[in-house]
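User: Please fill in residues for this 298-position structure.
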C-alpha cells in the first residue's frame, strides 16, 4: 500500500493551507499567475512550503493549481511557460522542502485545479482537450516526484472525472479529489448542480482514494457537509475550507477568521467523520499550527 494511504489509516492527516494568500503577502500582484513563481521566485515557494511543514502539516501541495496548459495560456500575461517544465520545477521545490525537513512521514501532493473553461453548452471545452491537459500536467508532476495527486476546487464533476482518468493513465499513486460547493436552501451543490451524493458515487467509482470538498465554504459552513458526506460513503474524506468570507480592502480580498476558531471547526469535521483536513483561501501556517495543536490533543 502507498505510504500516504497507510498513514491515513493510522491517523487524521493534516494538509497545508493557502498558497495564494502567502504569495500576495510577499509581492504577488493582481493579474500575475502564482504558478509562475516556481520559476520567478523559487526561494519564496521553498520558504512557504517549509513554514507549513514547521506548522505541522503532514501533506504539502505543489504550487501548480493553475498549471495546465489551458489555464496557463489564459493567466500568464507575458506568454505561458512550458507546462511540463513548470510542473516539474514546482514539484522539485516542494520535494526539496520535504527533504530538508528534519521529520519524516510527510507527503507531497501534486496539485491539479480546474482548467477555468466550461464544457458545452456553457463553454467550448472538449473532453479530449481537458483530458490531454490534465494528462500532461500529471505526467510532469510524476516526474517531479509527488507522492499523491490532489485534484481540487472542481466545480463540474465531469471535469473532475477527466482529471482522475488522466492521472490514472500516467501514475498508480493515490488520487484525492475535492469538489467546491456552495450551501443552498436545498443543500450543498457545485455551481453546475453536482450534489454530495453524486460526488460520493461517481468519484469513488472512478478510482479516487479520497474525496471531499474545498474552497467556497467557511469552516463553519463545511461542518455539516462533512457529516453528510460521511453518511454517503466509507471512503476517506478531506475538507479544506476558507478562512471565513472574504472582504475587500484596498482592492484585495481579506480573510478575517481567527486561526483558533478555524481549528475548532476543523476538529468538529474530524468528529463528523473527516479523515483529513486542511485550509484553503486565506489560511496561513498560523491556521495549520492551530489545527495541529488540537489534533495532537485529541
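Assistant: Residues filled in for all 298 positions:
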Amino acid at each position: 500500500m502507498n505510504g500516504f494511504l497507510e498513514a491515513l489509516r493510522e491517523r487524521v492527516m493534516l494538509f497545508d493551507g493557502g498558497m495564494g494568500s502567502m504569495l500576495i503577502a510577499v509581492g504577488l500582484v493582481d493579474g500575475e499567475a502564482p504558478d509562475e513563481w516556481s520559476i520567478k521566485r523559487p526561494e519564496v515557494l521553498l520558504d512557504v512550503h517549509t513554514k507549513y511543514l514547521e506548522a505541522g502539516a503532514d501533506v504539502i501541495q505543489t504550487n501548480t493549481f493553475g498549471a495546465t496548459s489551458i489555464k496557463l495560456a489564459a493567466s500568464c500575461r507575458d506568454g505561458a511557460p512550458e507546462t511540463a517544465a513548470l510542473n516539474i520545477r514546482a514539484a522539485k521545490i516542494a520535494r526539496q522542502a520535504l527533504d530538508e525537513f528534519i521529520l519524516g512521514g510527510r507527503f507531497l501532493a501534486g496539485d491539479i485545479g480546474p482548467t477555468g473553461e466550461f464544457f458545452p453548452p456553457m463553454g467550448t471545452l472538449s473532453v479530449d482537450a481537458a483530458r490531454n491537459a490534465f494528462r500532461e500536467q500529471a505526467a510532469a508532476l510524476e516526474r517531479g516526484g509527488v507522492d499523491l495527486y490532489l485534484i481540487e476546487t472542481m466545480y463540474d464533476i465531469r471535469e473532475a472525472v477527466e482529471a482522475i482518468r488522466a492521472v490514472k493513465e500516467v501514475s498508480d499513486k493515490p488520487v484525492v479529489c475535492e469538489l467546491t460547493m456552495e450551501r443552498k436552501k436545498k443543500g450543498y451543490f457545485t455551481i453546475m448542480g453536482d450534489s454530495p451524493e453524486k460526488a460520493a458515487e461517481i468519484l469513488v467509482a472512478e478510482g479516487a482514494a479520497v474525496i471531499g470538498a474545498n474552497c467556497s465554504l467557511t469552516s463553519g459552513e463545511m461542518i455539516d457537509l462533512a457529516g453528510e458526506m460521511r453518511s454517503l460513503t466509507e471512503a476517506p474524506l478531506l475538507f479544506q475550507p476558507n478562512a471565513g468570507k472574504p472582504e475587500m480592502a484596498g482592492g484585495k480580498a481579506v480573510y478575517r477568521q481567527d486561526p483558533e476558531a478555524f481549528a475548532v471547526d476543523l476538529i468538529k469535521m474530524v468528529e463528523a467523520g473527516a479523515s483529513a483536513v486542511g485550509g484553503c483561501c486565506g489560511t496561513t501556517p498560523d491556521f495549520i499550527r492551530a489545527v495541529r495543536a488540537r489534533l495532537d490533543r485529541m
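For context: Residues 98 and 106 are 7 Å apart (CA to CA).
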